[in-house]
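Thread: quick sanity check before group meeting

JM: Hey all, I'm pulling together slides for Thursday and realized we never actually wrote out the predicted structure for the chain we discussed last week. Dropping the sequence here so it's in one place. If anyone has concerns about the input, flag it before I start.
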Amino acid sequence: MASGGDSFRALLRAANAFLQQRRYHAALAVIKGFRNGAVYGAKIRAPHALVMTFLFKSGSLREKLKSIAQATYAHSRNLAYFVFTYKGLLAAQSQLQGKKVPFHSFLAACIGGWLVFGDNNPINSQIVMYLLSRILFGLSRLAVEKGYIPQPKQDPFPLVAALVWGTVLWLFEYHRETLQPSLQSSMTYLYEDSEVWHDLSDFLIYNKRTDSK
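JM (edit): ok, ran it. Output follows.
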């Protein structure tokens, strides 16, 4: 038993020494990026899928749990693949050119986005739209910072909020098919299901009655 424990400790020391070697840092960063992408994707998707599935999807408990597991796996896998691809391409470009330049990041992410998130499915669509909203805010702030547009005299956020909500409700009411299915489900629950009730049970306690009354 003692020799087994000594062997394990020696192996652990060797692994830790290997991880500290700078020559392998780029390759190891790619591997850890894959790990972090998988873990983060699971942490983000699992609770979201849990809530959305039990709120809006019908079916047996087994079917709901399977749907949650599939969505979590897909998000985790895609994010892991993307980080792996992005960091690998960054390292390759830096190695070839001898230095890191800003365009490397853009090109690596474009290729990774095309390969990993190019399939138009609900999860990829949701991720890309999430990023798009952040990009628009980020580019607006960058334009002000660089002096391309003047600094607003008043906080523009109230106007942005008004336009966003006005547009999305107009689309929901008159062009619903253009919205993502999960957003349609959320808005149906909020704005249409609240128009229908039969008694106190489905007015305050439940959204919809499950009996045949």
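AS: nice. The chain has three domains: 12-118, 119-151, 155-205. The chain has a mean pLDDT of 90.
JM: adding both to the slides.
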